[in-house]
Amino acid sequence: MWNAVQKIVRHPIVQFLKKLCGDPVQLYILLLMTTIMQYYHSAFTWLYTLAAVFLSWGMMRFYDFVAKHKYLGPLCYMVYFAVGMFMVSVLTEIGRTYYPIGFLVWFLTPQSVVDFSIWYTLAIYLLMLGFLSSAVYYFSKTRYRMVMQFLLMLIPLSLYAKEGVQAPALLVILTLTSYFLLMVWCRQLRESSDVRRISNVQTGTSVTVYVLVFSILAAVIPKPAVRADREFIENSMAMSSWSDVLMAAISMFTDTASSGGVNTIGEGRTVYYTKCMEPLRLRTQTFSYYTMEDTWQVNETYDYPDRPYEELFVYAPDELLGAIQKAAVLDADFAAAYGLDAVQDVSIPDLKERELILITNLLSSKLMSLPTRTAGIGTYESNTLVSAQGTITPEGFSYERGLVFPVTYYTDVYANEPAVRELLSCMRGETYAAMLSDAVTLLAWDDPEASALLEDCLAEYEQALRFHEDVIADDYQSDAVAALAEEITAGLTSDFEKAKAIEQYFLANDFVYDDRYEKPSGANVDHFLLESHTGVCYEYATAMVLLCRAAGLPARYAQGYSMSDPYHETFETDEPPYQIETDFVIKVRHAHAFPEVYIAGYGWLSFEPTVPSEETQNTAAENYYVMLWGFVILGLALIALAIYLLLPTIREKRFRSRLAAMPPREAASAAFIRMRDALHLADSTTVMALAEHAAPFSRDADFYMQLDALLYDEAECIVKTGAIAAAYVRWQEERAAFEKAEKKRLREEKIQKRKNRRNQS
Question: What is the pLDDT of residues 653-707, one digit of tens each?
């Protein structure tokens, strides 16, 4: 087997490939280029890599020439650099004629945002190949600087970081492995006039083990699931106007909203710092109409802030539920008519206002991002406008940083309290208006304040019903959505139960969050619900709004932010409380869409139908794949190690079986070579010299005399092969037993020396 491997290694094709790309420096360059082109043009990465094999080979020869000639070399390199930059300029100029933006803008922009350009891609290829080959060669063959090599390895990885995605796990491992190999080669294995390698086999084995061990450890050691804060880098980019475009798309009040794919430009930039006791969904704007073209449209009557803030009607849900319960206690007929008999004694938990403090950082919107049930916005209530849907635009809010907004609100978590859910399960949309009307009459004399609250709640509910009727009339009508809504809510009677069933439907039916998924042209909510089951928050919020509407529940599409990323920092302010300890940070990437549904017995309530995002665990997932490849390599290494350890035994057994069938002289020669190699003796060793080295464990003089006669005596051989084979086996067994005993003796001596040192001390 070993002979077969050596024969393959000596094959002309293998030798050609070794000469072409066997240099560790060139291998490192190839893997860096492969990683880069996987980012820019993954479909043809193999072609770019193949071209780089030949180009980098020629470059290595050219750099060798430059390094050997003190004056001519630098001159040739300057010509080479000028020609390369000319070719890049030609490619970028051609690309500019076919592409609307310049090369630099295209390069700085994530590739998911821009269209593919073959000319710009070829320009990047030449630039990166020329720069990386020059830098890697200089810091390995001219000046040994492995820290610089490590920094060069970060260049292709930074491209993926710009995109907000991870480099392919296998490429990361291979690049890291080539880095270790280059490090060993530069430090220990590079031959020169003063250094020559003696044993390529032993050296190669050691290097292979070293590189494998460090690569496997680097891959399989668990890594923290982190997401880098890229705000500083993105704030420093000259192309910050791109971030403003994105902000306008997700924060500015616009007439339409759609799912156009995820734009990652500026996703790390901070919009707000917040102080709050819980994560929240913050609503910036609402949309009323959904169209067949998969877009949401605003309605002037409901979505535009056009009335004084004083008209904002927000109440504590516990007060509403308490008033309804009080009416049920006062009148048994009322309780029986509306199914409230069983909940007359339910203890309703108190709901107190909670505080949210917003500190603005990056704004291009006149609309404020607030919880669904906002009760107040502090000193900014004057001259503030509010829409029928509750979107707010206070004076002095837009285009300023460092503004502090104290906000009071009622938490949506309250609806999930067991006692509250029990009460809400009795509230039915079909009878809710009549129940409120009767309760207003019952409480008019006994509790005028509760009666007035219920009267206002009735007006709010009637407005929600008018909104529902208006949008249903102009909404996209889908038989599929209607049928699915009926299926999901079958057997359920209360609004809250229906809404919760629709919310949980996506999680229970293998829906997937994928911000890289591209919907087919013309696909809308039907495609999402019935075919793809894949999308982002836009699809989930849209689907739940339309399903709720089909089930008879007033619902609206809300767009804003998800506040869930912890961030602890102290901010100094000019107004009380002067120092604010923040709890969360809201960045561009936290832009979010969610549904708000009117629930009988509660009012407007936000829901979260979007299934957990794989993006939030992106780093952990990629680390998993890196570890997986690490374990695959570990498994292959263990198999190779097992073969390496078992191969001598297998070869020995095979040799012994063949030895008995050999002619005497051939058997003697083969046995002698095996014994000589077993003792690591030189090729010039004689039989008698072998006998001297083997004396500690073998004193079979007859065997050595037979070997000597067969190897050096031309007379007719009278020794049988079987005797040689038996003596050889005995010799090997005696050697193995002697070596085992020697190891035991040395181990015992070492232990005894330790004991003696301890006793002396």
Answer: 888 888 888 888 888 888 888 888 888 888 888 888 988 888 888 888 888 888 8
State whether residue 29 is helix, strand or coil.
helix
| Alpha carbons 470 and 468: distance in angstroms, whole number | 5
What's the one-letter identity of residue 269? R
Largest CA-CA distance found in the chain, in angstroms, rounded: 136
Residue with tokens 């919020």: 541
Contact 739, 694 (CB under 8 A): no
Is the pLDDT confidence value at 617 over 60? no
Q: How far out from the chain centre does Cα 276 lie?
A: 28
Q: How many CB atoms lie within 10 A of CB 569?
A: 11
Pairing state between β 404-409 and 354-360: antiparallel
The answer to whether residues 608 and 511 touch, using CB atoms and an 8 Å cutoff, is no
Question: Is the previous residue joined to 100 through a cis bond, with omega within 30 degrees of 0?
Answer: no
358-413 residue pLDDT tens: 888 766 567 888 899 988 887 777 778 888 888 888 765 655 677 888 899 999 99
Residue 722: predicted pLDDT: 78
Element containing residue 603 per DSSP (H, E): strand 603-606
pTM, entire model: 0.57
Dump pLDDT digits (tens) for 171-184. Answer: 877 887 788 778 77
Exposure of 206 in the CB half-sphere (CA atoms within 13 A): 9
Residue 4 CA to residue 25 CA, distance in Å, equals 29
Asked if 589 contacts 634 with a C-beta cutoff of 8 angstroms, the reply is no
User: Measuring CA to CA, how many Å separate 106 from each of 40, 88, 102?
Assistant: 11, 14, 6
CA distance 363 to 365: 6
What is the token pair recorded at 666?
A: 């051939």
User: Residue 346 and residue 341: Cα distance in Å, rounded?
Assistant: 10
CB atoms within 10 A of CB 742: 12
Which residues, other chains included, contact 660 with Cβ-Cβ below 8 Å and sequence gap of 6+?
Answer: 667, 721, 722, 725
User: Rounded to 5 degrees, what angle do the CA atoms 122, 123, 124 make?
Assistant: 90
